[in-house]
Structure formats: structure tokens, C-alpha cells
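Morning, I've got a small favour to ask if you have a moment. I've been staring at a protein lately and its backbone has me curious. You're getting the sequence in one-letter code plus the fold written as C-alpha cells. I've dropped the whole record in just underneath, so have a look:
=====
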Amino acid sequence: MTYRSDGIQIQALPESTNSLIISHTELKICFDQLAGSLRPAWELGLQESKQNISIPFRSGHKFETPKIAVHCHVYYLELFCELLSAWKNIQNKFLFITTNTAFKASIIEQILIHNEELDYLVIIVKNRGRDIAPLIYLLKHYLNGFDIVIHCHTKKTPQVDKGFGVAWRKSLIQATFPNEYLARKLVDLLVNVNSGIVMPWPHRFVAHNVNWGSNFCRIKSLMELVGFKINRSNFLYFPAGSFFWARVDALQPLLGLSINDLDFCPEPTPPDGALAHSLERCIGILPMLENRRSYAVWIDANTHGFTDAVNNSHLIALPTNDDLKNNCEDWFKDGLVRAFSSYIPAHQSLILS
């Protein structure tokens, strides 16, 4: 056990903590022609790495046993038990369940009692802002004192083919709530005060579309409100589908936006371009701009919908702003030139590195 100078126990990270981590330098970068974005080439899947390297951890770890909040927003009640089973591997957790009616809340509470969940709070919220507005509400009122938050929801994706929606949801759940060994590794990573978020590798069906979408102008304004200037050449990654782990302090800048539920559009929310879609992207952008190290979770090729990719679990370190700032403008210009001069279809990205 390691102690700080004031006698408080801190987490000593075992050497094996980094055994699954792939360096951000191994991540392929692409220019997304659909939205003019620089982003990871998610649609390639995780390929064999030249080397697995140890990511150095700086000093300043938090207490040995972090307090973990699991936030689950339940709109589709029939999908709740799927998540209830998934988070069994998460230790030292407190459940915050948000839902939009008293009827659903009463059923959820009975299910929790039946499953012998002792540490929970069920909160009724308005049916606005999907799962993002309830998360902002929790940050404002309940998450002070927690170190890590795990965010999930009963995702159905009813506007697309049913088979795709099920495959995407199962992929998100498996990568967010992995086996006990990998779950401990995610805690080890987020105990470090310089960490940001941990998110699933996007499923193959959406991997080509994890970009700015119709949200860049709103995101630019939101970032300016919390003190960051961005432009089109900024690198972008975010937890598509809104399943992720995060250090609570990495999300605190969102409170500087002074957003409440009435700022979100009423249902039905459009497929893209709404405030919730912009904030979903901000969850990835903010830690990166603060030079916090974030990670993507890869479970296996089948989980993420790929046929030709790595078949064992890895954690992929994602680049920080400092890692990229000397390259992004050149990459972006190169991408634009190639997009206008090549015959590659617009829905295909251009690999830059």
C-alpha cells in the first residue's frame, strides 16, 4: 500500500494495469468526408498492434476505494433488467435511476428490491433531453462526492432497423460493463486524476458516422461558454450512443453551461442536431481539450460488428489536445484537398495516418 505525505492511503497501480493498453500513436486517423471531421478511423476496427506499451501515470491518484455512481436513464422499461444484470461486476457502486413517470419509478423500485440492490435512488425527471438532461441534473444535485460516474440508458434506436438497434445496444452494454477483470482495469485508469472518459469502440454500423453531424456550430458556441475555442480542424471523439465511464470532475465544466431541462427540445427529438446530440459530443471533447487521457474499450470483433479485426480485449489510449495540436491543421487541409480531388465516395473516410 502507498501513502501520501499526509498519511492518506492512495491507489498504487499494479504493473499489470497497462498490459492491455495500446498507445494512441497506433490509432489510425481519418478525414470524415460526410461532416468535415478529423477523427479516429473507427470503421477499420481494431487491427493488430505493433506493440502494447505502458502508458505512464502521473502522481496524484485519488483514494484507494473510489466512489462510483452508476446512472441509468430508463425510458424503455422492458430493457431495464438487461442493464441490471450487466453492472453486477461493478463494485462499490451507488445506483441513480432516472425515469419519466411515477408508474415506471414504482416498477423500477420493485425490481431493484427483488434483485437485492440496496444502494439506489430512483428520480422522476421530465421527458426532455433523452438521457443527457438527466445526467446534467445529477451532476448539479447528486454527484458531488463521487469519483467516477458510469452512464447508460435503455437504448432502443426505434428509428432504424430493429436488428441493428439490438446489435448496437448489446455492443454498448458489453463494452461498458465488461468482465470483472477488465472492469477493475477501468477503475484503475479513472482513479488517476489526469484521466477523462472511457467509452466503447463504436459499432461497425455507426463507426463511419461518429462525426460532427449537424452539431458543429452549436458545439463551438458551447465550448466558448466554458472557455475553449475550437474549429473544424479540431480532432473529435465521443461516446456515440451515450454509454461511458467518466471521472466526475472531467464532466464538471458542463455545469458552466447553466443548462436545464427546458433548454432541450420536446419529444420527438430529431435524429441529429439537437442540444442532446451536441452535449454527447462535448462529453468527449472537454476531457481531450483539458489534456486528460481518455480510452476506448475494444471487446472483440464480433461484439463491435467486425469480421476482420482483433479478437481479444484491449484498451486504446485516445489522443489529448497536446498530442495532436501540431498535426491537426495539416491533416485537415490534406483531407480537404484529397476530398475534392479524388473519386472516393463521400460516405467513405480518407485515411491520413
